[in-house]
Structures are given as C-alpha cells and as structure tokens.
Amino acid sequence: MNRSSVIVGAIAAAALVVVIAVVMGLWAQVGDSDITPAGWFAMALGIIVTLAVGIGLMALVFISNRRGYDEQTGGR
Q1: pLDDT of residue 56
Q2: Under 8 Å CB-to-CB from 70, ≥6 apart: which residues?
Q3: Percentage, residues of the chain above pLDDT 90
Q4: How far apart are CA 40 and CA 6, in angstroms?
Q5: Model pTM greater than 0.85?
Q6: How far apart are the first and last CA of the chain?
Q7: pLDDT digits (tens, 9 = 90+) for 17-33
Q8: 39 with 71, same domain?
C-alpha cells in the first residue's frame, strides 16, 4: 500500500463519517411519520423492481463476458 492509497482511504472514511452524521441529524428532526398501506406497497414494489433490474443487468454482463461477446471483433 502506498501513501496515496492511504490518503484516499482516509478521505473516503472521513466523508462517510460526515454523511452518517448529517443523515442522523436530519433523521432526528423528522420525528415520527406514518406510512399508509399504499405507501408500503409502493415502497415494496419499487424495491422489487429495482432489484430485478439490477440483477438482470448484472446477469447480462456476466453472460456476455463468459460467452465472449465482449472480445474485440478483429478487423484492425
């Protein structure tokens, strides 16, 4: 590990701490909030669709790589 990697890691860790502190402060200000059943349904549907799209795209990346579709096609 060289010096620049340590510096980048320290900056990333500091940024993460700052983000967590800001989120915790904002979360405390929000207080209690109720979510209707329609809101829970919409959130669940959004999570499921997002996971499906992410998993599908990653599967396509792996399939494309394993079948050789990403190799350069001759010609130069």
Answers
A1: 97
A2: 64
A3: 68
A4: 42
A5: no
A6: 38
A7: 999 999 999 988 887 77
A8: yes
